[in-house]
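Worked example (supplementary).
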Amino acid sequence: MQIRVTVNGTAHDSDVEPRTLLVHYVREVLGLTGTNIGCDTSSCGACSLHLNGEAVKSCTVLAVQADGCEVTTIEGLAQNGEMHPMQKAFMENHALQCGYCTPGMVMAATSLLNENPNPTEEDVRLGLEGNLCRCTGYHNIVQAVLAAAGGR
Amino acid sequence: MTMTEPAASTVLGKRRLRKEDPALLTGEAKFTSDLNIPGALHLAVLRSPYAHARIRSVDVSAALQLPGVVAAYSGADLAPLWAGPMPCAWPVTADMKNPTHHPLAVSKAAYVGDGVACVLATSDAAARDALEAIEVDYEPLPAVVDLEDALSDRVVIHDELGTNRSYTWELKCEGADGQVERAFADAAYTVSEHYVHQRLIPMAMEPRAVAAVPQPFGGDITLYSSTQVPHILKVMTALTLGIPEHQMRVVAPAVGGGFGAKLNVYAEELLCTALARKHKVPVRWTEERTENTQATIHGRAQRQHIELAADADGKLTAVRVRLLADMGAYLQLVTPGIPLLGAFLYGGVYDLPVAYDFSCTSVFTTLTPTDAYRGAGRPEATYAIERAMDALADQIGIDPLELRRRNFIKKDQFPYTAMTGLVYDSGDHDAAATMAAELADYDGLRARQATQNVDGATKRLGIGVCSYFEMCGLAPSRVLASLNYSAGGWEAATVRVLPTNKIQVVTGTAPHGQGHETAWSMIVAEKMGVDPDDVDVLHSDTAIAPLGLDTYGSRSLPVGGVAIAMACDKVIDKAKKIAAHQLEANEDDLEFAGGTFSVKGTPDRSMPLAAVAFEAFTAHNLPDGLEPNLEAQVTYDPPNFSWPFGTHICVVEVDTETGDVDVLKYVAVDDCGNQVNPLIVEGQVHGGVIQGLAQALFEEAVFDEDGNPKTSTLAEYLVPAASDVPPITLGHTITPSPTNPLGVKGIGEAGTIGAAPAVINAIVDALSGLGVTDVPMPASPHTVWKTIHAAQSASSAQGVSK
Amino acid sequence: MIPAAFDYVRAGSAEEAISLIGEYGEDAKFIAGGHSLLPLMKLRLAQPTVLVDIGRISDLSYIRDAGDHIAIGAMTRHMDVETSPVLAEHAPLLAHAASHVGDPQVRHRGTIGGSIAHSDSASDLPATTLAMGATYVAQGPGGTREIAAADFFQGFLQTALAPDELLTEIRVPKMGGAGWSFQKFNRRAQDWAIVGVAAWRRNGESGVGLVNMGSTPILATSVSAALSSGASIAEAAELAAAEADPQNDLNASPEYRVHLAKVLVRRALEQASA
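After joint prediction of all chains, the assembly is encoded as:
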């Protein structure tokens, strides 16, 4: 099936099988491998990206459902060679270790701040309920998101 | 060789942001499944749906007819490809039973997830579609899921072994025969406790992934794998497949966490490599999470019986431990050795001069094989002694922290030779416990508890303490030999000064989230007087870093990091010869500081390392007999383990109506000796604590009586999210290790070791007024509720009125 | 992880969706946000041959004040229910319950209609709308009909919807200042409730819905009856599980669920009465 998806500002016309998941589309068709796959039950959030500006789990969206939509992946977050403030906050607060959950976590965190620019610590913890990390224990991730919110 | 001693650290011990982060934060980093490998075929593995079944026949013919399918094989089809069975590197006893284990089962499947057939296809989707077309005729056999049942040999899993018992390993330490028994007979207090360490799934966020890329004409083959152990994997793959080792290269690209589960040699690594050679094209495989929960090793899975004997003052006189450990269906790389890694730690951090008695029996079950999971044996040991110490304190009627203080090995007793013969390098348990108590406001909490936990209270406060040792820095090779481990414990490092004074470090460690690139750069920067950003760390590719024993057991800093420091010293020694020659000075008159050699007392006669490096490169004017270039290699075999330690305190409130446990506060005070980068130390503790807390409250690999996994997805296996865990309060004491020149110890597993006992001690403490003396892990609301009910029924049954 | 192959058609209107589902027959399924269906398809526990995408029917996404009730289009996403000022004013219990569905990413895609039509008894919104006395509007080839929530849930994942009917609207009565509470008891915030309670109370009236206490969402009518005949909250809460038939799973035994339901109903009614 023919679809047109604008990914990180560039329109792509692609012919995909209906069963192609959005995450497989960005990774395998477009070569944007920053979006990771961590589970098969929509539990871990590693595949989170922005669909029309909001975080979604791209393992639970069909590529054909994204036809005509705007997608932003982790590769599209940095602008003009500068990391996004959330990416910087993650680095400055040591909010990543192995880095596998990180792209999804960053995309979920930026979406969270778009909806709630001044979250409490509890808001951040609840807002990231759909993203699992096995390395950091979340302490520094929460600090990073709070720091990014404070810096806006 | 001289050890250079900089006056004061300028880099070490300072917080420094990680150089690894920008690539990981922007999607630039490449994990194995991100690699673009043109022409690769995709492997899919058909897995047994039965825990125990004879394989009568496998028919792949229908699969071969499907679009995109290139080949399909049964276990029998591939048998000729294996030069040897899948490796177990730790035959802990001479008579250990070890069933033959191949990448695909041939006659019998021994757990749900055991591979029985495979497909190669042009896409992952085609390969997985084709699995549904393979016909396997199974004869289901009874499953063995319970350890006592396994021990009974009611059903023998591996026919050729004749038993499910793999081995019994003993460690009895007493001054004179019978001392253990006498200590128990003479004891003023004894406790006898049974604990279960539930099976856990390590659950690194990156599932495993493999890609094997052959050079059919050149002969070499490169194996990309999401592994912690590229060096071990290279040797083992070469041996298992009969590939000349020099033609085998293993690369671990960015690796998304391991926690011990990627310290292994897996069927899919061997299948991809063997099939890439056979088909002369690249073959790749990416694990799905549901496969990960079945076909990647599990951890823990032990039953413990621990007995303590103590004198009238509560001073420990003897510890006796009996373990029953679940190996799972097969012995993977170090499966049988895991209980041994804990065997030395059941005496905890306590002065135990009289008697110690440990024995472990290990059995096969029809479940996923177990192996190393973060802490590997040491969390189990620490849990047993720290839970039993609380039971002892309860029996004596003293505060659990006070009982610990009475028994701590004192600061001035270090180095301390334990009953087991191991020497604890340094420690100050009292200082760590004191700091933890202050950070938690221990006395204030006890006062609050007295007013809160009154009769009828439904929100009860509990305080749990755990003091621990983390035996790490694996390991002195001779000690490993004494434990029958098949490899050594050394680590290799090369330090190379490039002509422009940039420095390359080649390390045998294999980081997967620990930040070695940053930490090793800091060690070199401190030693060589350069900026850490001018240091590049090369690792995890056996063609670039051919020597190494990889990353596990909190060994990388105390072994690999120390090797780098020593290699720096060797480079400086050589550079000094060149500088002395250039400055026409005596070598002994030179000092090296801040990256510059200068003549003592005449600082204007100096030569920066950059100039020395360029001289070494041009080689125009070197001392006679000195080779060009500045490079040194060190292989360091540590003289001892290192012994990080600490005290954790957990504060919980238990809702006795629902069984819900709310962790109000978690304090961790850890002492890992000198710290290279406190930022990374803190991150390791945070993550470790939450993994331990997750064992205490959330996680368990559950199987039904037929051996079917009930927690095979992340919707069922409850890895907690940020919303489900508390923030952590950290403290650190610093007691340098005297056994290595950096004074470092290691920190990777400390949090996990300390957390589970602290959390459970807190819950039991909260419920002690209700007659509860133990709560099994994971302490889910349901389990806590049932435990309260059982305790109350028992106490009312004993009551006069009922 | 990779669903079995299927065909995909996108409906531009409810009428077109109904006509397509009629055309493709019983192996075809509607997909809205897909957050109930796609996870099952990825594990190959569901293998529809055709998906009819109704997610783009934009005139089914709305939240309107309709006088005595609020009308919610079936394709309204959980996030829009959660943040709706209209619902915050007139049906805060529903808005709050929606904030507990899944996680933010799920709430950005999942729809209230999808959740109710899927009718998982462990989901938050079927039991919540049931407690509120909602009415669902179904459209089929022959027109539309209203189905009371109390008549809608017929068995495990089974509803009163005919195969060729599409749930188009959810109508919830205005709460008129009733006190309310939503109690979700689970181990991780992102998970389904082990037991959940949606309750409201106003003068002599009340409604109590139970999540995950049987094969369907449960309306705890005995609790409401007891309250209206003068029972105390504690007495009424003891009847919490009278209509329930809870199952055993990894997180709870039936006995524990019954106990939790009583505790949580009591707490919910206390909060709703405060």
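Two points are worth noting when inspecting this output. Chain C has a mean pLDDT of 97. The two ends of chain C are 47 Å apart (CA to CA).
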